[in-house]
UniProtKB/TrEMBL annotation:
Organism: Brotocaccenecus cirricatena
EC number, UniProt record: 2.7.1.156, 2.7.7.62
Name listed for the protein in its UniProt record: Adenosylcobinamide kinase
Family: Belongs to the CobU/CobP family.
Job description of the protein: Catalyzes ATP-dependent phosphorylation of adenosylcobinamide and addition of GMP to adenosylcobinamide phosphate.
Catalytic activity field: adenosylcob(III)inamide + GTP = adenosylcob(III)inamide phosphate + GDP + H(+); adenosylcob(III)inamide + ATP = adenosylcob(III)inamide phosphate + ADP + H(+); adenosylcob(III)inamide phosphate + GTP + H(+) = adenosylcob(III)inamide-GDP + diphosphate
Length: 179
């Protein structure tokens, strides 16, 4: 089963993703695929919080925000993967070089679809950054459009899509397992 979880910052996406991944794994191997490359104290705090939240749950951790298919050698096919997050992954792919990479969104979508097909179960988390109606600088707009395009590509192929807001879940496509 492949699930896409969307929502704003601190909406409960990651915690729900952890619970769903654990349920889908049903005692089998679980991988937390972390994509955030910490750059400041706020990023490091996010990493610490996510580590603490899943402490003792049995997740293995894979840290990779670029060249995603190269990480598949570390991912068991019979397992369940929590990919957290598309948001950070696109930022890594688009803004890690000397110049922003205009092709990053299309590449990220292709790579994510490839890695999502590898394991038995794949739960993917993405922040909804495209809905505030504010106009930003051109590269920020390019990033936001790319993020929305990636999520549309995933939603078209995934089994279930849900949106979280203040801890409330709205299922837009398919059904979520009980978590």
């Amino acid at each position: 089963m492949r699930i896409l979880l969307l929502g704003g910052s601190k909406s409960g996406k990651s915690m729900l993703g952890q619970r769903l991944t654990r349920q889908l794994a049903d005692g089998g191997p679980m991988i937390y695929w972390a994509t955030l490359e910490p750059r400041d104290t706020e990023d490091r705090a996010i990493v610490r919080r996510h580590l603490a939240e899943r402490d003792g749950w049995g997740f293995g951790t894979l840290e990779r925000g670029r060249a995603l298919p190269e990480g598949l050698a570390l991912v068991p096919r019979e397992g369940a993967v929590l990919f957290d997050s598309v948001t950070a992954c696109l930022a890594c792919q688009m803004f890690s070089g000397p110049q922003p990479d205009a092709a990053a969104a299309a590449r990220t979508a292709r790579e994510l679809l490839t890695v999502s097909r590898h394991s038995r179960h794949f739960v993917c988390v993405c922040d909804e950054l495209w809905r505030d109606g504010v106009t930003y600088e051109p590269w920020t707009e390019h990033y936001r459009r790319g993020l929305a395009e990636i999520c549309r590509a995933l939603a078209a192929e995934f089994d279930a899509v849900a949106e979280l807001s203040a801890g409330c879940v709205r299922v837009w496509k398919g059904e979520l397992p009980d978590a």
